[in-house]
Amino acid sequence: MLEVANLRKVYGPDPHAAPAVADLTFTVADREFVCILGSSGCGKTTMLRCLSGLIPSTSGHISLRGKPVTGPPDDMAFVFQDYSRSLLPWMTVRRNVAFPLRYKGVDRREAEALTDEALDAVGLAGRGDRYPWQLSGGMQQRVAIARALAYRPSILLMDEPFASVDAQTRSGLEDLLLGVWERYGITVLFVTHDIDEAVYLADRVLVLRPPANVGHEVTVNLPRGRDQVETKAHPEFGRLRGELFAALDGGPVAA
Amino acid sequence: MSAVTRAPRKGTGRRALGLLLELALPAALLIGYGLWSHRAQSFYFPPLGEILEYFGELWLFDRVGSDLVPSLLRMLAGYAVSVVLGVALGLLLGMSRLLRTAAEPVVEFLRALPAPALIPFALLMFGAGDGSKVFVIVLGALWPILLNTIDGVRGVDTQQLDMARSYRIPLAARIAHIILPGASPRIFAGMRTSLAIAIILMVVSEMVASSNGLGYFVLEQQRSFAIPEMWTGIILLGVLGYVLNWLFLRVERRVLAWHRGARGLSAETATPAPSTPSSTEKTDA
Amino acid sequence: MSLEGVQTVGSARRRTARTADGLPEGRVRRALGSRRIRDLGLKVTGVLTVLVALELCARLGVLSRDWFPPMTDTYVELAKLAFGHPLWTEIGRTLSGWALGIGLAALLAIPIGVLLGSNRTAYRLSRVVIEFCRPVPSVALIPLAVLVYGVGLEMKVFLIVFVTFWPILLQVIYGVQDVDPLVYDTARSYGLPPRARFFRITLPSAAPYIATGLRIASAIALVLAVTAELVVGAPGLGQSIVVAQSNANLPRMYALIIVTGLVGWALNTAFQAIERRLLRWHPSQRAEVAS
């Protein structure tokens, strides 16, 4: 379980300056898929960087499975928005995926097996010897997901991972993500600015308002085994989308 | 350069024509010189045939061991020290803002100091042997590598570094697998500049207080008015510079294959990064 | 300058990024101001550390007295030289060769570079010659230059012109080829005559590249001037270093080496400043400011 309590982040030395994240509190249960929805500039990225231990928070408390987060935790993996900048262009796809495993204390044999399995799970089994830049954008993001999966995290943080791919590729990647989420039984915290994407993927959607606190929360009761056509045609989908749209736009919505 | 010369690939005939075009001027220059020098009978500019005759006599392989090899060894030793020192210091200064700021004035001064001015100092410190020559080469060739490494290290993608930290990759591995490869295009740019400087300083240092080497040879021949012999040395140095540069480019192409690939492919989709003149080259001697 | 200078673009981006995170403008400026003072302190500390270390090495005998007098002696000599006219004469001699050399090289290289940069056939014709001449170690020509021109100013100028011609030429070619074809086509469609196209578009676009070429050429020219003075005894700073050394006047030798470094540093700084000014309009700068 990921617990965030009264998280506050202020950049610079002055603690009274305008905060990028203020008084943020929420929890994510094990194996839950939570989407964080917010317009650009509302502190989503700052929040994720605090949660992942990449930057220290100014005050507040973050804990993962009961342990306080002070640096990057060993059972957390991060998928960045800009895949072309988080994959290493001088390594093949296989080496990119296997790279973090070497320093996790996984022996060579097992690392090979984990890499194979992860590449297989994202449908890139035959592409291991390519270089990332020889693949399309969608495939590159699948490599980044494979790298995260091979690391065997208990929680996956994703920062607008599908924001820079085209719509067609995007729905494919969404379904792929739901598939591996179910298969690996991991917790996912997924940041996006796209309402449809949030409703389609999540068990729960948290709406973030600047400076990054939870302005609204919605539980998504759509059945699992979601389908791009059926789920999106569901009347509940339309209702949730409307509610979230209103919540993003401003005033609190009576739920 | 390559971006400009990429000829449209339309059949071999066209390419042959292009090659002919490129070789026309060099051929014309050579023939022109041959005709002129034959007619003019200038003392300083002997005919090409005569120079080549001497060239064969001297450099196949009479003086290879006595002059060419010592020169090359000094140059390579100086160059190797420059590369190791430049990359190591560049990593340190590139990663630490504090050290970089503190070292800046000293580095700026030393890099602006023309290396040959240190020859008298080197002679005092190391004597007239190889040590002083290697020292002078290092003091000239170090800077482009150092400065380009600093720039390269600072230019490493922050997201790659975040990625590495989020996967808890230890510092040594981050340096070896992310920072150094990420900086390598810049490091190679610096090394290319430094190679030319190392050759120049090899020649200069051998022209002062030396008893062998190519620089010594050329100057000695001039002093004894052995003009065709002097020309053979100049030509050999030209060929040497050209060959070493060519070898370097081949190594660079191999090592940075990923870089060309990544840049070439992304250039089609993304807007090409404008190459700022000040950041593309740091060619100060 | 340029340890930080080259990356000013990058640090500007970081600064803007931070302002976007919600820091008020004034606080950023104040933070930067105090940072500048701290940086200055660091730089002074860096220089002092080196100077004190050198002094200690000389006094404690780590570096032999025979060839390394205490730095204080050198400073005294430096002050003496600075107030006597021979030093300035020597600097003048070195710099006149330097200035004539790159001046002539620029006069030759800029028109040829514009021609080769704008004409494909001319470029391909000369490519092999350029590629061959560029990596040739220039100093190999010193003996030839001495033969033809003697040991005076002419020899120095010839060497400098021959060597600095190439970097300037290459930068001009890059610069002219880098002119945005869209801008050029627009100008043509508006009926701008060739002359105006050249002065209004090609030349301003290529200016930063030319400045870079000149900066590179300046450093090389100084090296060559000093080398020519040192190796064959043309009058100037290089020769006076050798004279001081052969008279066993070591403080003077070190003082002159320091002066040579300062001259190089001053030239570098000046050219970098010009280059940065000319670069202000460049798309790379604009893009960074906008992000």
UniProtKB/TrEMBL annotation, chain A:
Residues 2-235 form the ABC transporter domain. InterPro entries: AAA+_ATPase, ABC_transporter-like_ATP-bd, ABC_transporter-like_CS, ABC_transporter_ATP-bind, P-loop_NTPase. SUPFAM superfamilies: P-loop containing nucleoside triphosphate hydrolases. This is ABC transporter ATP-binding protein. Pfam families: ABC_tran (PF00005). One of its GO terms (molecular function) is ATP binding. Keywords: ATP-binding, Nucleotide-binding, Transport.
TrEMBL record, chain B:
Keywords: Cell membrane, Membrane, Transmembrane, Transmembrane helix, Transport. One of its GO terms (cellular component) is plasma membrane. Its main location: membrane. The chain crosses the membrane at residues 16-36, 76-94, 106-128, 134-150, 195-219, 231-249. It is found in: Cell membrane. Signal peptide: none annotated. InterPro entries: MetI-like (IPR000515), MetI-like_sf (IPR035906). Residues 68-248 form the ABC transmembrane type-1 domain. One of its GO terms (biological process) is transmembrane transport. It is a multi-pass membrane protein. Belongs to the binding-protein-dependent transport system permease family. This is ABC transporter permease.
TrEMBL record, chain C:
Residues 91-275 form the ABC transmembrane type-1 domain. InterPro entries: MetI-like (IPR000515), MetI-like_sf (IPR035906). GO terms for biological process: transmembrane transport. It is found in: Cell membrane. It holds the Pfam family BPD_transp_1. SUPFAM superfamilies: MetI-like. Keywords: Cell membrane, Membrane, Transmembrane, Transmembrane helix, Transport. Its main location: membrane. It is a multi-pass membrane protein. The chain crosses the membrane at residues 40-62, 95-116, 128-151, 157-176, 206-233, 253-271. One of its GO terms (cellular component) is plasma membrane. Belongs to the binding-protein-dependent transport system permease family. This is ABC transporter permease. The lineage of its organism: Bacteria, Bacillati, Actinomycetota, Actinomycetes, Kitasatosporales.
